[in-house]
Amino acid sequence: MKVAYWPGCVSRGFTPELHGSMARIAPLLDIELVPLDRGACCGAGVIAEHNQELADTLNARTFALAQQVGGAAMMMNICSTCQGAQTECQERLDANAEYRAHVNETLAGEGLSYEKGLTNKNFLWLLVEELGLDELRARAQRPLHDLRVGPFYGCYIVRPADRLGIDDDMPRDTYLALVIEALGGTVIDYAGSHKCCGFPIITMNKEASLKQAGRHLGDAVDAAADCLVTPCPLCHLNLDLQQPLAERVVGRNLNMPVLHLPQLVGLALGLPADQLGLQRHVVKPTAVIDWTTSVVAGVGETSAEG
Amino acid sequence: MAEFTLRLRRYNPQTGAPPYWEEHTVELEPHRSVLEAILQAKARFDGSIGIRCSCRAAICGSCGVRINGKPDLACHTHLDKAQRHAEAGVIEVEPMGNMPIIKDLIVDMEAVHWKKIQRVTPWLIAKQPVPEREYIVPKETMIDVTQSMACIQCGACVSDCLSMEVDPEFIGPAALAKAYRFVGDPRDDQHFERLTDLAEDPHGIYDCTHCFMCIDACPKGVAPMSQIMRLRRIASRDHGIVDRNNGERHEAAFVSLVRQYGLLNEAELLPRSYGGDSPLAKFTPRAGAELASSLPSIAKALLRRKVTPAAVLKPHKLAKTDLQQIKRIYDHAEKDPFELNLYITGYDEDLAGAEKPEAAAASGAVQTSAESGQPGQTPGESPTR
């Protein structure tokens, strides 16, 4: 399947292992990535907070570029925040023909135009809705047996439910659990799975921001998770990069590895840990990976061997 | 008639005993409400169950509870719908969050919700001189504020606010939506003062963590978070309020970095959010103090080569021709920005029926039953944001 691929900014900036691991696993899933190298930042809600038309126009430009990719089935992103911010802009663009024409007028100078009705799916949605869980299960050469994984969605990909097309027929707010299961892992139920990582207020109220991250990580520790998995690189920043600071705010040791979704999929597909950039995380995923053989193992199994 | 099993969370703080769960099976038609089920359990099995209710028609806002983990009005939730989302076929009902429990399903709205509403000066401070007859105002602006006026003070958004969960002093979604009701009202005289107050307060508009919980929680389509984002937009762009919480600086830095690079430059965003929108921001005392306090994280990130010095010094950037396009878009959109408000305009007809049936039906029902406001669209095409 060929997709117009929107990697986002952070996956190529402070979490390069996300973009890298996606590129690694795509061929193994028969996904052909055509990168939208010319697209601009989605605005992460912040540009829309400043100027709605500016955010809508920047994203309309990215959508128009995606629509120019010949033979692409849809646009695909790998960031919850991109999914949410872009869907919000698309909702306005699709809702009102007059407004769409107004935005397209700005794009006309560059020979671009957005046509209503683009399909833009996060990799998580694509896994479940396009590839399918059975297919994923069949391709998992190295099922994640004994691995206890806590899902962490990121707000932008689960709310608001009606805008994101989440309902009883398409329970997209349960997909991470379905994917973990299909890959052979054990899904850990804990309080923070659908909550906010705190990243959006890290510069405004740092203590509250880190308290959010710290509490969710702590809840996952208490539920005996080996690691978390997230489709959002911004969540990854607060949960992994900031974990040393979050530990101080909540006053406990956490040491909870946080994996990007393509990394978890990649491990099950049989790729070695270093090819997926797992050595780059601030919290070393030693509980998840046996570095000598790259065999996925739960904590119990690893310690039994060692 | 069908049977429904309720799992109620019982708690009486006066006894000193811990909370416990209690199950009751009731008999009702599937289209009846969760509230009716609770009242039947109270009448038949245990008169001591505490629940607050009055109108039973989604107008008074008294019966806010959590049903299967999500906040809603008990009188506004059909039993069959609740059953569909019930784990193991048992409908779980518990009191709302973020507020102290008085008894069972009754929370102390006075201690949290109403205190916060009072915090935002919830009345109109009339522009002087007050005209002898009515104020003449644009129709759209009044339609816009009816979205906030539709609030019935049920506390569902307060219950699940994730900022309030970690910062109980956060003014919160209901009160800030109420604040927008006056900031968006052209008859009010104190827009600048209200916004300065809410921007400078460390628990004000910039303390919202943008999690959308309140939007999904609200049974009346108020979309409190959208109103908070409007407050930020008006404070920073229209009034130029530079707050002590880095709210305006963060926004300004983000917008200007994307203009310059086309993509987000994280290494610059952080110092500029503290020190102001300039490449020299990292040398300001504010930014310096922040970088120092973040050293434990930064050091590890550098050590693991998650963040490399090269990436910091030479950030990713779009090609020159694309940057020119981005700049043109900025120049155009920043000159005279147009703000499409779907609450006022509604969706184009082909979308209203086709892609938003549930949302439209839900908010359509809301608007016919809510007394306040006459939103600018017919039921069936009304958005909730």
Task: Describe the protein's architecture and organization.
The complex is a heterodimer of chains A (306) and B (385). With 306 residues, chain A is an alpha/beta fold. Chain A has two domains: 121 residues, Glutathione S-transferase Yfyf (Class Pi), Chain A, domain 2 (Up-down Bundle); 173 residues, Rossmann fold (3-Layer(aba) Sandwich). Helices cover 43% and strands 11% of the residues of chain A. Chain A is built from 13 helices and ten strands. In chain A, the strands form three sheets. In chain A, strands 2-1-3-4 form a four-stranded parallel β-sheet. A four-stranded parallel β-sheet of chain A has the order 6-5-7-8, sandwiched between helices. A two-stranded antiparallel ribbon of chain A has the order 9-10. The longest helix of chain A is centred in the C-terminal third of the chain and has 17 residues. The radius of gyration of chain A is 19 Å and the shape is globular. Chain B is of the alpha+beta class and 385 residues long. Chain B folds into three domains: 106 residues, Ubiquitin-like (UB roll); 134 residues, Orthogonal Bundle (Fumarate Reductase Iron-sulfur Protein, Chain B, domain 2); 89 residues, no CATH class. Chain B is 46% helix and 9% strand. Chain B has a five-stranded mixed β-sheet. Chain B is globular, with a radius of gyration of 25 Å. Chain B starts with a strand and ends in a 16-residue tail after the last helix. Classes of the chains: A alpha/beta (306), B alpha+beta (385). The interface between A and B is large, with 73 and 82 residues.
